[in-house]
Amino acid sequence: MKTFKNILDFQKEFSTEEKCREYLEQQRWNGTPACPFCGSINVHRFPNGKIFKCREKGCRSKFSVTVGTIYENTKVPLTKWFLATYILSVHSKGISSLQLANWLGVTQKTAWFLNHRIREMLTANAPELLEGIVEVDETYVGGSESNKHQSKRIIRGGVGKKAMVIGAVQRNGSVKAKVIPKTDKHNINETLSEFVAPNSIMVTDEHHAYNQVHLNYTHKKVNHRDKEYVRSEDIKVHTNTIEGFWSLLKRQIDGIHHSVSPKHLQRYCNEASFRYNNKKSLQDERFANALANCTGRLTYSELTKNEEK
Length: 309
Fold this sequence. Notes:
- Helix content is 37%, strand content 14%.
- The protein is built from 11 helices and 10 strands.
- Helix 3 crosses helix 5.
- The protein is elongated, with a radius of gyration of 22 Å.
């Protein structure tokens, strides 16, 4: 693995397209090129070093290391892609598309597209279930109500047009967060089955939507309505850890991006979760972990389809 401790080391390590391609080949194929169409390693590399051809009779496809990844058909150099990935994966609160555009020398529209495609890379694929002691909580994400027109302010029960997110964090472990349409028993139970291993100890507040979690978990509640925030039993009963994660997420959104579309909110949650789950990793490890998920594509038309105005 390449090692670097700061952005100057990083830029020196990935100063050319060739260096970036070599690193991507190593990360994606472990040094043995494989056809992205049929999976065969019986491939030929052309003299320019960039293009390969599958030798299998039923395939014969030509490809490069970027085919089948978020970099496919991109006009942005890999040097800029890599730098953007590095910044987004190691920066404490992320970076706005406007600031990224200035740093990379691209348009704000291009930087916005890069940001979202990299956030797609930061999504954990088939992550392990949380276990042990797991804190669960929900939050609402949206702009400050004082800055909104009256027609867009919170209505009926304090939810209104804000997006709802449920999160779970394993004590001394990883966090998961998911945008849900409604904080009811159905959405809560369905999400928790995706997040948390059965028979774990689950700590929540007194929200009625958690009334059935005792069927699959050892359920402990902390009653915030009675101003109870921590209770000592055989374990410490509190939701302070997941509430700390909500603070990080909201500082990222409010401080850097100011507002986000509900359509894209899940990617911002994934970005915040990636940083939290890799907070003990070195910078080169974070970058490698992000790049490991580069397979798959997210087109501009998919990003902007039915975009809310």
